Amino acid sequence: MNKSRLIAAYLTGLLSLIAYPSLLIAAPSYCLSLYDACKYPADFTHFEYVNPKAPKGGNIKLAEIGSYDNLNPFILKGVKAPGIGDLFESLMVQSMDEPQTAYGLVAESIAVAPDNSSAEFVLRKQARWHDGTPITPDDIVFSFTTLRDKGDPTFKILYAGVASCEKTGGTSVKFTFTDMKNRELPLIVSQMPILSKAYYTAHDFEKTTLEAPMGSGPYEVASVDQGRSLIYKRVGNYWGKDLPVNVGQYNFATIRYDMYRDENVALEALKSGEYDFRREYIARNWATAYDAPAVKDGRIIKREIPDQTPQGMQAFIYNTRRDKFADPRVRQAIDMSLDYEWVNKTIFYGAYVRNASYFENTDFQAKGVPTGKELTLLKPFASELPPALFTQPFENPKTDGSGNDRKNLLAAQALLDEAGWKIKDGKRVNAHGEPLSIEFLLRQPTMERVIGPMRQNLERLGITSSIRNVDDSQYQKRTDEYDFDVVSIWINRGIFFPGNEQTALWQSSQADVKGGNNLGGIKSKVVDTLLDALTKAKNKEDLVAAGRALDRVLLWEHYVIPNWHSGVFRVAYWDKFGLPATLPKYNLGFQAWWVKQ
């Protein structure tokens, strides 16, 4: 499983909420907004993007590509089960029509110290585990220490600025922060998944398991058929079903995931009625593969739903730990082997726009040339950065879309020559006679049709290339151990305001952490300095400057080969679902759909 998705089930909400206000909140509050005022008042009854009268019931089937062998989503080991995050609650939960606001879930209130030195939560007395026992401050303290010390390495990074978590009363818990300049920390801890101390006293947290763990969320595991399927059932006496943050959501009685090894097989299974709902990520399929009777007569609805979520960066990322990718000129030259204009026209049916930022579709996307505070941050490193970074906007290489544009290949050839990779007997070799070769490591074959034309251009440059398709467990093992040349990533999707999560992705200290998120092995004094400025920004103006500077440096250093994005959710589903009249701006909101009666 792609490392960037390892903890997506419980961190997607966190990473889409980050910003930096003045946070002068001393009294308890029902919500936490780190930029604007909360959209919903204290007495709100439900979010606007739900139907509060949505009927409960109905059984749905979904498809998942790959397999799973672990029902504990919080450790590095194993391949995580789909949907397992719905078993666990957090102190607060994000709204899907505000980019930086959270409302109480397990916690009924939060009080942030005026100097940002602490955040204290008061728990709801009715909050319960699935066995009926109450969720207590002891569970919160246990969750923090366990996730930080024994969980996926990302937790250790996220909680690095948290000094302690302690019980302060029968229903209250307090987090104390060491880094009071990091305004993100109250929100980070508010989104922490909550674990049952009693359960994990009797069960080893650090081992993979196919036994359903103790949860407190709207769903629980009904049955496990490893490698084939997984069924969840809605908890009938779910303690939080009437909370404003939950009204109109989690309407399905059961959710079944069937596992498929291949995207094409899964698509055919949808058309034959084997499952009910599909998100389509492949433009060719969307354009050509839904010519089926059920689509023509309306039994399957094929629909594009606007997606205003920040797109982040989907890309091929180089493993710069390997000497052959250490020189940015080599990375830039390889990037030029991708004729995106031809690929988009011929393979993608013109469905995409190429990514030009790590913070695509946000205020933090670097545009033009650096000015003002951004320039002030970058100037001290002028001798270490490409001179063009200061004088021209970053642009991806462009072609005429003919599939035979020699201009970029000639430029790539010049870069390789300059970097010391010369042609000898038709092969690109370094001063030691070692050939330049690239292996693209994939867990699904869908990218092969993009890499294929790239390989032809790489061959013209004298570079040997290959594709290696592996299963989920092999892919995870190799990425955990950084045993790859190039892999596909999608990072920062849903990130409205970059913050601490960028440290995990780029900081030098994370480059050699086994199973970490710095997949590219980036070690850069410039990047480290900008990350420090980002996490310590005092206001949004400083945050924007640091974010744009970071974006600009990452782009000009050519750590990735940018991919593309569409700006819509492409969905196909059997006509059995009801949808709210208003859909959320920043999420598909599938948990607010229902089965029509």
Average pLDDT number: 92
Q: Biggest sheet: strands side by side, in what order?
A: 19-18-20-14-21
Can you summarize the main beta sheet? Answer: 5 strands, mixed
Spatial extent as radius of gyration? 24 Å
End-to-end Cα distance, whole Å, is 37 Å
Instruction: Specify the structural class.
Output: alpha+beta
| Strand fraction | 15-25%
Helix content: 25-40%
Low-confidence stretches: 1-25
Total count of helical runs of at least 4 residues: 17
Q: What is the number of beta strands?
A: 25
Broad shape:
globular
Topology summary:
Layout: H1 8-15, E1 31-33, E2 59-65, E3 92-94, E4 101-104, E5 107-112, E6 118-123, H2 137-150, H3 153-158, E7 162-167, E8 172-177, H4 185-190, H5 197-202, E9 219-225, E10 229-234, E11 254-260, H6 263-271, E12 277-279, H7 283-288, H8 293-296, E13 300-306, E14 313-318, H9 328-335, H10 340-346, E15 353-354, H11 372-378, H12 406-418, E16 422-424, E17 427-429, E18 437-442, H13 448-460, E19 464-469, H14 472-480, E20 486-491, H15 501-506, H16 525-535, H17 540-556, E21 560-562, E22 564-565, E23 568-574, E24 577-578, E25 594-595
Parallel strand pairs: 2-11, 18-19, 18-20
Antiparallel strand pairs: 1-4, 3-4, 5-6, 6-8, 7-8, 9-10, 10-11, 12-23, 13-23, 14-20, 14-21, 15-22, 16-17, 24-25
Helix pairs in contact: 9-12, 11-17, 16-17
Q: What do you see in this structure?
A:
This protein is α+β, with helices and mostly antiparallel strands. Helix content is 25%, strand content 20%. It has 17 helices and 25 strands. The chain has a five-stranded mixed beta sheet. A four-stranded mixed beta sheet has the order 2-11-10-9. A four-stranded antiparallel beta sheet has the order 5-6-8-7.
